[in-house]
Amino acid sequence: MTDGFARGRRLRSTPALRRLTAQTRLSPADFVLPVFVKEGLTEPAPISSMPGVVQHSVDSLRAAAHEAAEAGIGGLMLFGIPAEKDPVGSQADAADGIVNRALRHLRADLGDELVLMADLCLCEYTDHGHCGVVTPAPGAVRGQGGAMVVDNDPTLDRYAAVAVAQAQAGAHVIAPSGMMDGQVAAIRRGLDGAGATETPILAYAAKYASGFYGPFREAAEGAPQFGDRATYQMDPPNADEALREVAQDLAEGADAVMVKPALPYLDIVRRVADAVDVPVSAYQVSGEYAMVEAAAARGWLDRRRAVLETLTAIRRAGAGTVLTYWAVEAARWVR
Ligand SMILES: [Zn+2]
After folding, report:
1. Total domain count for the chain?
2. Among 148, 198, 269, 285, whose Cα sits 20 to 30 Å from the Cα of 236?
């Protein structure tokens, strides 16, 4: 007897049937490409731990942005690497700082064709490599070389100033990634005070202290010179706390939220997507990229298939937008 039981295979028997019944689809507009622009470069510099990804000069970034627009992706997330770093990250909000210069060019070149998102943090701009300003730890004696900690509240003023500079330079979206408490409220106040009431905030709301950021440190040249980021980024074992971080950012005025990294945190992506009614992004980080590229280079994975499967999984988990270093290539594949 062959009747009387369900046959899942019926709808899998041809590519056309599978396409018709696919529950998750990828389209170029789902993808955002993170890009790095470094002051002083005259041509792009390869990043050894991220084959195929470069640090851009302003000119090569402009060319890459045109290519991204032609591929139909949703937007760019900009990171800047200044020539000069200092304790407070002055170049992040300098009007002629590298990221703000790049934003002006891109906005002039592309208008509103691509969504230009500005990552807002200080770690690429500070000489100590932390995401905020630092102060001696309670109990440490200043000048004695004691432990330093990232000081939350003075950092908020810096973030607000950076947000205003980025909005004035042409960023369509401000994306704070520093995981300081109160950062969204401070940035919203800063933007509103400068007349940028229409500029949305995409909060890196649930950003974990992850081992998968390794290659990014080379790309953005923002490795901490002491300690780590475990005192401000989320602890990987925690899930409920992600919902609290997201709720707090929304209460402070975030227009959209992000989970980072993506693949090791798909449960978080799903829980956040179920909990909120704003757009949810997930950031497929440098280590996720490097894993697939390294295995594919050895012939251990079918690169294209693996890339598209990871992107599908992130969308299936509930992210509407995926930040991915494969954005342009994947857009061409799925178009
Ligand atoms: Zn940072």
Report:
1. 1
2. 148
Q: Of 207, 257, 268, 292, which one is the catalytic site residue?
A: 207
pLDDT digits (tens, 9 = 90+) for 264-309: 999 999 999 999 999 999 999 999 999 999 999 999 999 999 999 9
Per-residue pLDDT tens digits for 22-41: 999 999 999 999 999 999 99
Rounded to the nearest whole angstrom, what is the distance from the C-alpha of residue 123 to the centroid of ligand 1?
4
| Residues 204 and 176 sit within 8 Å (Cβ to Cβ) | yes
| Paired tokens of 332 | 């061409």
State which residues form the domain around 121: 25-139+146-334
Please list, in sequence order, all residues whose beta carbon lies within 8 angstroms of the beta carbon of residue 309, skipping any fewer than 6 positions away: none
Q: Is 286 annotated as a binding residue?
A: yes
1 within a domain of the structure (yes/no): no
**37 located within any domain:** yes
Q: Give the CATH number of the domain where residue 243 resides.
A: 3.20.20.70
